[in-house]
## 1
Amino acid sequence: MNSLKEIKRTDRRLKLKVVACGVLARELYRIAAAAKSIIDIQLLPQGLHDEPDKLRQRLQQQIDALPEEGMHYDAILLGYGLCCNGLAGITARNIPLIVPRGHDCITILLGSKETYKDYFDTHGGVYWYSPGWIERSLQPGKERYERTLQQYTERYGEDNALYLMETENSWHKEYSLATYIDWEMPDSEEYKGYARECAAYLGWGYDELPGDKGLLQHLLNGDWNNDEFLTVPPGSIIVPNVNSPGIVACKPYNKEAKS
């Protein structure tokens, strides 16, 4: 196939396949509506990063299935960061992969890995909230606590349920700040109010940070500069590079080493 440079020198629009985490749904569709590329979006369930092997398997399945869909794409865009090394080992087949340089989806929502790092370095114990996270998973807070307690009580009895809740929620002590990423979506005030209530219930502070559409715009418009994106050519595999500014890298795929 033609190289990406050759394709982008032509006048035709890029045809791009996006495979992304469902937490980015609202932001992705908002940017895709105005993108200059032809874009198909496929969302995978939120939470796959909790089991990196499962995330890797699902992504590779989607990548491998694309040639069978009958439509030619110029590139496959992954709407993920490194995500607990879930992208490590992902292999580009006959279509280049484009990967945002970031540790997770928060980088994508904030618009750059630099913004993410600056905030992370100056704010300890941050737990992030966004419309996608609020809609697609029950976030830490009163509602989650009460619902889980009820389920445990029905299964194991009251005393055991209280013990399980104390053990299960011990990780809350590692956080002290709930930060909402504000893309000024419809119903933003409702989402912010929910995040504030969660923070108050947990005894955390609360902060808001404006989202930045720049990184997603560049991704969907085909503006893949090396500072923001990793281009994985066919026959190459994604590898972590967390100690470098680039965060992710790639190398030629070695079938013998894999087997």
## 2
Amino acid sequence: MPRPILATIHTAALRANLQVVRRHAGDARAWAVVKANAYGHGIERVFEGLHAADGFAMLDLGEAQRLRGLGWRGPILLLEGVFEARDLELCSRLGLWHTVHCEEQIDMLAAHKTHEPHRVFLKMNSGMNRLGLRPAQFRAAWARLDALPQVDEISLVTHFSDADGARGIAEQFAVFNAACGDLPGERSVCNSAAVLRFGSDARVASDWVRAGIVLYGSAPDFPAHSSTAWGLEPGMSLRARIIGTQALQTGESVGYGSTFVAERPMRIGVVACGYADGYPRHAPTGTPVLVDGLRSRLLGRVSMDMLTVDISDTPGAGIGSEVTLWGRSAKGGVLPIDEVAASAQTVGYELMCALAARVPVVVDTETADA
């Protein structure tokens, strides 16, 4: 039989999370962000759950081609724009919208020969200091684009650095408005955290919101809010089974480095999951797991192919018992991925994206409770 580990993508959960976004976004249309192969879930696997979005956004031309291959004929936005001039040819052929964040990309457009003008999203660096034109450069860049026959509609976009924290979005939003408030064109300003925390505020209303991590069931402002608090459901569950057990006596240790030493007699389960499957090696003792749907904890150091969990207080647990590493147990309990990530001092994004290719993946198209 195959090694007993499986990831499940929950179509109904993705659909429900998109509805959460819509409830917070007012009249704005929603981009479903599927960069990084849909945050590790797989573009083809999430398409059914997210195809009610108004558009899809990603980074790679290859991912855009895959979406068109699935039959998507709506808007597709390249969040980082094109990386070289010849990319514009594929944008023309596939009808892709693309971000412009620097003068060099405007130069590429100016030299591009096309019969169909492009829809572009001009990006402002309002304080994130990654991609985007600074406010003092923004209007001149807009004027350059507006004068090009290769450009059709120009939309305006920025990205908030602190939408998930105490600083919020007010300062950056004020910078954005001051620099382009009277320019025509649709706006897109809110990412996942900004949608949930500020999307219903009429003062920050825009035409498009960019829903990323929220679609996959992770709270973008954890631990201030949990996924449950936002009404989100896990889009992915990672489950494995116990393949061995051990009875530890007081003073005995577990695994490499003997990092966990039993303070009392206890039972442990050896689980068919390790860092080669994408589970974080640096997750410490105490990281939560579900054993047969009941809450328990990781013990000792994570190995390449195995990890160990405490089954001392889990009646009936043994070889074959299900261990939920994150997501929804087959018995109905939920372990939010954010809790696992926080214990490992990382974020849910990284765990999702790190799911290894060797882990089998199935799509549950019926219910989020499977």
## 3
Amino acid sequence: MSNSPVFRFAPSPNGELHLGHAYSALVTDHLARAERGRFLLRIEDVDGGRARDEYIDQIYDDLTWLGLTWETPVWKQSQHMENYAKALDKLKQLGLLFPCFASRREIAEHELTPTMPDTPDGFPIYPGIYRDTPAKEAASRIAEGEPHTLRLNMEKAVALALQKTDVISFQERQKDGSYQVITVSPLDWGDMVLARREMPTSYNLAVVVDDALQGVTHVTRGEDLYYATSMQRLLQILLDLPEPLYFHHPLLVDMTGRKLSKSDDETSLKTIRATGISAAELCLQLPPLIL
């Protein structure tokens, strides 16, 4: 089993699973079976302000209804916060972190250009306004309790990563099952947030630490996370973590072309199940599991 490929489905319990989640879970399970690999379920509940136990129970219920099984015990991020703290400390020791005292409004007001795209996390790209704050001043503001985040100095991080590897890249699964090397530029996304007061780790940091500790070899997820892969690959290189293979599957969209959301009650699996449809009937209405 130790040499088997390892796949994972990793939902956040901040709402009900919808059709898009069902498709992603089924694609991951299909690939795991095709590769004679293991299928893991991970609960990404580091956002304590939004995660709910009732949603975790619903995730288990919905996935069981779909006919999926997974290894136990289930990995819950909230039970592994010490792992993320260690990763943060390593990046701090490398001199790659700095405190940022800017609010989202302040960042938006300093946006580099009005047409610049948001980061993969959906926020305006950070313009670097607190990157060079003197250490003594930063320490004083923190001691006074001023709210702040910890950001990765992207220029320093990329420079260090390129001392370890010739190019920052990942391997993406193609339609024919082969893998293509995709070169990425994390600098495009600015200094990413790795921790904040209300959430002591970011999604990007937690997911790479978890994948390494769980031995994940294949990351299968929606194409909306395609660009986040560049930041995660950078963190893997900096933290000396193994590189998984990636597959970003197409998203399910509504009639307007908008990706499905947890706020859309009509597409939630709980609502759909209440109509009496079977899992087999639902699967026939979904796109092919491999495109």
